[in-house]
Amino acid sequence: MPWYQLDDPNDPKLDELARQYNLHPLHLEDARSPDESVKVDSSTSYTFAVFKPVSLKPDPDAPSEFLPTFTPIDIFAGKDFLITISDPTCPATREALQRARRDGDDEHPGRLVYLILDTIVDLYFPAIDHFDDRIDDLEDKVFDNPSPEILQSIFAIKRELIDLRRVLVNTRDASLHLQRDPNTIIDADHQPYVRDTYDHIARLLDSVETQRDLLNNTLDIYLSSVANRTNEVMKVLTVLGTIAIPALAISGIYGMNLKGLPFQDSPYGAEWVGGMTILSTILLLYLLRKLKWL
Amino acid sequence: MPWYQLDDPNDPKLDELARQYNLHPLHLEDARSPDESVKVDSSTSYTFAVFKPVSLKPDPDAPSEFLPTFTPIDIFAGKDFLITISDPTCPATREALQRARRDGDDEHPGRLVYLILDTIVDLYFPAIDHFDDRIDDLEDKVFDNPSPEILQSIFAIKRELIDLRRVLVNTRDASLHLQRDPNTIIDADHQPYVRDTYDHIARLLDSVETQRDLLNNTLDIYLSSVANRTNEVMKVLTVLGTIAIPALAISGIYGMNLKGLPFQDSPYGAEWVGGMTILSTILLLYLLRKLKWL
Amino acid sequence: MPWYQLDDPNDPKLDELARQYNLHPLHLEDARSPDESVKVDSSTSYTFAVFKPVSLKPDPDAPSEFLPTFTPIDIFAGKDFLITISDPTCPATREALQRARRDGDDEHPGRLVYLILDTIVDLYFPAIDHFDDRIDDLEDKVFDNPSPEILQSIFAIKRELIDLRRVLVNTRDASLHLQRDPNTIIDADHQPYVRDTYDHIARLLDSVETQRDLLNNTLDIYLSSVANRTNEVMKVLTVLGTIAIPALAISGIYGMNLKGLPFQDSPYGAEWVGGMTILSTILLLYLLRKLKWL
Amino acid sequence: MPWYQLDDPNDPKLDELARQYNLHPLHLEDARSPDESVKVDSSTSYTFAVFKPVSLKPDPDAPSEFLPTFTPIDIFAGKDFLITISDPTCPATREALQRARRDGDDEHPGRLVYLILDTIVDLYFPAIDHFDDRIDDLEDKVFDNPSPEILQSIFAIKRELIDLRRVLVNTRDASLHLQRDPNTIIDADHQPYVRDTYDHIARLLDSVETQRDLLNNTLDIYLSSVANRTNEVMKVLTVLGTIAIPALAISGIYGMNLKGLPFQDSPYGAEWVGGMTILSTILLLYLLRKLKWL
Amino acid sequence: MPWYQLDDPNDPKLDELARQYNLHPLHLEDARSPDESVKVDSSTSYTFAVFKPVSLKPDPDAPSEFLPTFTPIDIFAGKDFLITISDPTCPATREALQRARRDGDDEHPGRLVYLILDTIVDLYFPAIDHFDDRIDDLEDKVFDNPSPEILQSIFAIKRELIDLRRVLVNTRDASLHLQRDPNTIIDADHQPYVRDTYDHIARLLDSVETQRDLLNNTLDIYLSSVANRTNEVMKVLTVLGTIAIPALAISGIYGMNLKGLPFQDSPYGAEWVGGMTILSTILLLYLLRKLKWL
């Protein structure tokens, strides 16, 4: 059984194969569209599948961070031919194709499709773990120091999870299609395996949902920490104000050019007035605490 | 097969055609209603469809911005006639009709309906891209400078997305109707094409959902940035208060008309007291930082 | 065919009719309950329907505002009789009954029920438009001046929309019942008309959902505007504090009864010190802006 | 037909009846569990039902308030026997059993079950009305005076609504079970009555949903009122600060021990400087208002 | 019937059993995966089940607190063999296996599976009660003293509830599978028991939902309490500012080196000015309260 691997959907070789194997023009159009989405479409003569393996690439803005990136792979799997179109520089696709070549055999194109799908799904797990680590890290940091950088990270991960979730939901639907479609290329022997892959995707989606919940928690923690800190800062301001007011008021009084102020002419004036100031400050602080205002 | 194109649903020609082809009065009423909504309704003799192509028109308030606007097109497609009613000034409708005229043929009214629908759906993509650009732009701005104008833009886009989503949901239901209805005008050959269009609409709706999520993120960023800034401003106020208090208190003390203040009569009084003030300010700042209040 | 119109469900005439036409006691109980809800219930011998037409009545608290009010109408429609019970002072019910009398005929009680339902549904549109106007109005106001009155209006409309939505959902279910029930009084000819009414209700519910979204937007705008304003006021306070501090500190210093202060005995002391104060104020403002604290 | 009424599920008489009528051990276990939940379970020989009537008991913390409390009633209804287990001190259960004894008859255990369920459902309405009154009351208070007590009441009612909703949802499912189950004890004649009760429960649940919406509104009003008040208090602080600053600055200047201040030696110095102070305060307030900062 | 109990899925004995009883490689892989999830998978020859009993272990960070921990148990139940794989140190698993050994019998592997599942489900109730206690405790504390520690506890419980909910949902699906699957190992006699267990899980999930609602309430209370306190602190600051301003302004005025101030040379100057100060302070406070600013 021939297996054609093309590196680029715009390769004219694809048009030739399309004529030879009678590929549907809508499928060619999909394969060549820059924003194709994950899907499986089965006709009587062949199955057309698009998957989006994930790989972690260093973030250009922060080289110590990794960004999940999706590189599409297109598969045309007929009874007696297999065409795969994928960027050969993507490590996830490379691994999927290698495993299919090693463990599959020519007589079962359905098995090859399963092996590729299964490898792709297995490679989502490290991406999910990567998110887990980053969210744990954010949760640890957010209580100690709710900085705007954490906020930016929360929203960046939210955005990436939105993308990942979309790919996973479509992959789940595609794997369901491989189980249910009467024209499916997967034979009865391999149906339990595809079902198992489906369960894995369901578990991945479960994890993504949990991570969204955790991120929302982290955001709530951030916001309540900021509210808390504003409250703390206000209290400091109030305590400082309270400490300052008697001193300012009393020193203002004795700074007046008036006659008849007590202790004005006493040689221990400074001591008397100083004591009075300290006493009234303590009294005021005590009063505020008593009234539960501080 | 005759194809009647009317520019205005109130054209009396439509009543004539209604009599000739036995059009249902409820359909006429729909076509003439100012706020008709997207739908497909199939009877045994013909299919009535309303679509709402989108076009980007410059915003009268901000000429550099574009607003998505919807102009309805009504289609009555029988086995042996086609009536289209559309505003000829709308570029999207014009393009849809031109493509139908160029690529369709008279024998297949179903194909004509498909071509019009497909063009209309394809033209939603630039509108979605336009929103993508605007949201990206807002996200970039909101971290640097959370101004009320950004807030206004967020809510304006939210409002437009609500409208767009409504049109897309109805278009999706309409295209499903074209696939499922036993009276549908779409023949078996063209069913895969309509299914493909359905997939495109589903992807568009997916994008709209993602954009709503992203807008909510942007709003959260805005609100948390404002909370952050209030917090920052409070801290500045507290630092300023802290710096000022010892100076005010000490200068207040030495401004009192009392006897017995230390250094009062020393020729280096100013230096002593100045030093004391600076020292106590530093001490207070250090204390606040130590207590993690700042 | 006799048509009995009663103004009050407690009219003893109703008991008489109940005996004559064998009306179910639960239906009588419903008709007489003060808080009956919209429903359709079909038995083999007749159909019992409750609808709630809306009319806009002036708000007693704000005579320029209109409040949607619901007045129930009960219908018992058998093959050969029609009983309607409604408050004759309600303009919506009056209009519905007049149209049924004008356009209906005695042979088709199903047509009469349809005509009443259709008129009632049509009269929801002005109520929805009324809400649209009020929400637009609130949106315009909330950006310029987020006052507590706007907040009160938002919550008042929210409350009214909750009521309206409940009535519409029940009316939609009732109209579905008229289409699906095997005992339905609506004959095949009139089914497309009831389906059309169902579509209208679906569109009304769509509008209510949109209005709820828009109201939530308005509430978010309100809250973020208030947060913004607090932030602005804080900044003003900080600017004022910043302007005041050098003046207070320096005048405090020169108010001390100490010896050795610079310029103390210079004849141009006031000018020197004034200049120094202004300079340090400008410097402090410049510093704060440089550190992006203001 | 014997009707056994037990006051306590732990009565040994129940074990005797269980042997006699062959009751399932799981049902006995349920009846004796302290936190049994509402349900209906039909076997071929009898129907086991648990309902939870509500009664309003004075709140021990606030005797003028009433708290809804649920007291379970267990029913074993066979073709030729009825066992009810209920706390005789609960007024709602007492009323339900009295009505069943008065209006039911021995030949129809299904009718007895219906009568008990219907009375229990009718008695939920006053509880709902009670919540309506309390929420209206809170709404009136929250605009005038958003105190923490109102917050506590909002959350207390939320908690009670969560409980009530859970009981109602289970009761709705139980009444659906009485309609649908092939082993149901309700005969065809009484099915419309059970359906009517089902409608009542649906309406009750509707009301609970509405009340949750209204409570969330009230909470939003509370929070926005607090935000508003903080904003107001900030403004007062700013106005006070603005009024004080010129007075403080100018009096500070003239308190300096410097030579060369204008009006220093003029006999009308106080008047000149006083006038200057008032003028600059007015100017500052005018400037702030002009810049829309206040 | 042999019952093999393995303490570790990596025991080579398992491979031997797999060969003997023809276990599916995917099931072995699941049993050995470190993050297997709850499931039931029935083949024609045996049923594979994974459950996750909960046990409360002391929190290493706070020894007085207990953390729910999940220890998986794997079950292979054929017609004539039972293999269980579980960590023998987990008390919940131990209890489940003991009860199965005591109450089950060798002829019914389905009964053994039921007994294990039922014990596991019963042991979730104390965990739920534990959460109930902690949430009640938090609710009591949050009104009196909304500290960041409470916030941390709220989010910690939220996180644990997310985990617990996931396990419960999967267990519910697994128990449904045991009822519905045509290959199920549960015979007709034990179906009511599994259904009863299913009801228990549904009630547990209900409780988890309620607890999530209550936690969200507690979070709302926390946030509104913090907002309230900020508001209170602001008011204290404003009252202090109000009290201080007249004293500062008047003492500033009389501190000026000017001529012509009233009472400047009066022997009762201090008394006059002091009285004036107190009077204007009272007047200002009265004015603010009159204007409802405080």
Descriptive account of the structure:
The structure is a homopentamer of 294-residue chains. With 294 residues, chain A is α+β, with helices and mostly antiparallel strands. Chain A is built from eight helices and seven strands. In chain A, strands 1-7-6-3-2 form a five-stranded mixed β-sheet, sandwiched between helices. The N and C termini of chain A lie far apart (81 Å). The interface between B and C is large, with 50 and 42 residues.
Labels describing this entry:
homopentamer, 294 residues, alpha+beta, 5-stranded mixed sheet, two-stranded antiparallel sheet, 8 helices, 63% helix, rod-shaped
- Find the structural class of chain A using helix and strand composition: alpha+beta
Rg on CA atoms of chain A, Å: 34 Å
**Major β-sheet strand ordering of chain A:** 1-7-6-3-2
Give the overall silhouette of chain A: rod-shaped
Which helices and strands appear, and what pairs or packs with what?
The structure is a homopentamer of 294-residue chains.
Chain A: E1 3-6, H1 12-21, H2 25-32, E2 39-42, E3 46-51, E4 54-58, E5 66-70, E6 73-78, E7 82-86, H3 91-103, H4 109-122, H5 124-144, H6 148-180, H7 191-254, H8 269-290
Parallel strand pairs in A: 1-7
Antiparallel strand pairs in A: 2-3, 3-6, 4-5, 6-7
Brief summary of the model shown:
Five copies of one chain form a homopentamer. In chain A, 63% of the residues lie in helices and 12% in strands. With 294 residues, chain A is α+β, with helices and mostly antiparallel strands.
